[in-house]
Amino acid sequence: MSTSETTLPKLSPGADATVRTARSGAHAPRLRALDGLRLIAALMVAAYHYGGRDGEVSQAWGTSPKVQFPSLHQWFAYGCLGVQIFFVISGFVICMSGWGKPLRSFFASRASRLLPSYWAAVILVTAVFALPAVAYKAVSPSDALLNLTMLQQPLGVDRVLGVCWTLWAEVRFYALFALCVVLPGANRRRIVLFCAVWTLAAAITQASGEPTLNVILMPEYAPYFIGGVGLYLLHLDRRDMTAWGIVLVSWLIGQHYAVAALWHAPNPHFFSYRGSGTIILIVTLGFVAVGAIALGLLNRVNWGWLTVAGALTYPFYLVHEHLGWVTIEALHRRLGLPSAATFTLTVAAMLALAWLLNRFVEKPLAPFLRKRLNPTSARIH
Question: In this structure, are residues 85 and 44 in contact, taking their beta carbons and an 8 Å threshold?
């Protein structure tokens, strides 16, 4: 992120010299390790969708992924926790990118980041599923059009992209952060208050069972976003004990929700069994990985190709599930490739498609959309 895009946050007197130095130049260094972690999280989710669950993917394989991956399916089942890691990363990145921006600029940056590839993915998946040779049913034209708004889930409409439920969570987080932090002006005190109030309000919502508050405050996802925000405060000042407290409480609550959602007693009728200890470990590793990046412990992980990996992550995440089904069926059932080769080639094909979306959709359309949504900023810069 260019420092010319935003007013730099004021560091507390105890801020690390390395952070102060990094932010004093014309450009803040890109956290390439964060790009790599994004791709790891996306590949975890892909492993889950291709081999860690039943459902439509069984139709693509011709049998349950249990049969295709008799040992690995148990590990692939943990891949869904990549979403929780994404949310922690999102909390970190949104706090970083939203600090010092006016509301309109913040909105323009988020919309231009999310919408071009999202629109392209919705159109592409709808078109592919409408082909006679494809076994999967496309949503109705009306529902496909509504999907372009990202509001299909709250409006109860069929989703074109199965993964878009996470985008609905992201959008709600952006709205909360924009209203509570960006609009009045970001500073450390306001962000700490935001984290504390959201944590408490989410717990009260969980206790009350109030559905409207549950939609707004997302108690099951809030600790990951809040934890990421706390980690960004540590990025500014690693001796900030309040920020350490935010991260610790968020991790404690986050691991609870992950276990509550994914753990069950061993049962032969379930696709797989996830141990609570492994669930806690993966959530912990997600927090630790973002924390290591925040504290500068992975600054040496600065390879240029990680920037490309980060750029591919979002379009890959959007298209990998549904178009992956089509690719798996073509490679495995029609061409007869073995499961391992099919899995590997499907991931490679989705990464290649993600590169095309980044090159021919995101790169030209994101700056265009950002300038149209925030013309004042475009004239200034």
Answer: yes
Q: Is the dihedral of CA 343, 80, 153, 108 positive or negative?
A: negative
* Tokens (6 digits) for 295: 């504290």
Fill in the DSSP letter of residue 81: G
Beta partners for 27? 2
**Angle at CA of residue 83, ends 230 and 304, nearest 5°:** 75
DSSP codes joined into one string, 64-117: -HHHHSTTHHHHHGGGGGHHHHHHHHHHHHHHHHHTT--HHHHHHHHHHHHHHH
CB 238 within 8 A of CB 184: no
Q: Count the Cβ atoms, other than its own, within 10 Å of residue 190.
A: 14
Angle CA 130–138–46, to nearest 5: 105
Asked whether the predicted pLDDT for residue 116 surpasses 50, the reply is: yes
Tokens of residue 320, six digits:
């990998």
CA–CA distances in Å: residue 376 to residues 94, 106, 108: 21, 13, 11
* Predicted TM-score of the model (pTM): 0.90
Token pair belonging to 63 = 């049998």
Residues in contact with 158: Cβ distance below 8 Å, sequence separation at least 6, in sequence order:
139, 140, 143, 152
Helix extents (H) in 263-359: 276-294, 305-328, 339-357
Q: What is the DSSP letter of 331?
A: I
Read off the tokens for 206: 């969980």
3-state secondary structure of 75: helix
User: How does DSSP classify residue 342?
Assistant: H
The single residue listed with the structure tokens 């707004």 is 216
- Residue 317 neighbours by CB under 8 Å, 6+ apart: 42, 45, 163
Tokens of 323: 């178009």
Percent of the chain with pLDDT over 70: 91
Digit-coded pLDDT (tens) for 158-176: 999 999 999 999 999 999 9
Sign of CA dihedral 171, 177, 180, 184: negative
pLDDT band at 269; cut points 50, 70, 90: confident
